[in-house]
User: Fold this.
Amino acid sequence: MTAVPRRRMVPAYLATGGRSRPGTAGFERLTVLCTTGTAPSPESPELEAEHRRLWELLQPGALTVVEAAAHLRLPVSATVFLAADLVEAGCLRARAPIPRAQQTDRTIVERLLVGLRALR
Assistant:
């Protein structure tokens, strides 16, 4: 039998402080997070070690909420709370997900191709 690696399970109510809604509205699973350069203050009583882990994870660049949750091995809902706390503290920036690109109208592409062929 192959041993399954144990992963640390943190109950969501511990990471969220027992709250049912994050303080900042508008977070989705694909919300993009990045640091502002301001580190979370260790003296701040409302910011836990999980907040620091999320901030350190985002130091090299931006990640979506769902990617950060996977790296932290936390539920997405708990990661939303952590990110919202850090945004309120001024340590993170959150922006809406990049919208999907619209498909190009085929007639425009065909007219462009005809125009390019006429230049020969």
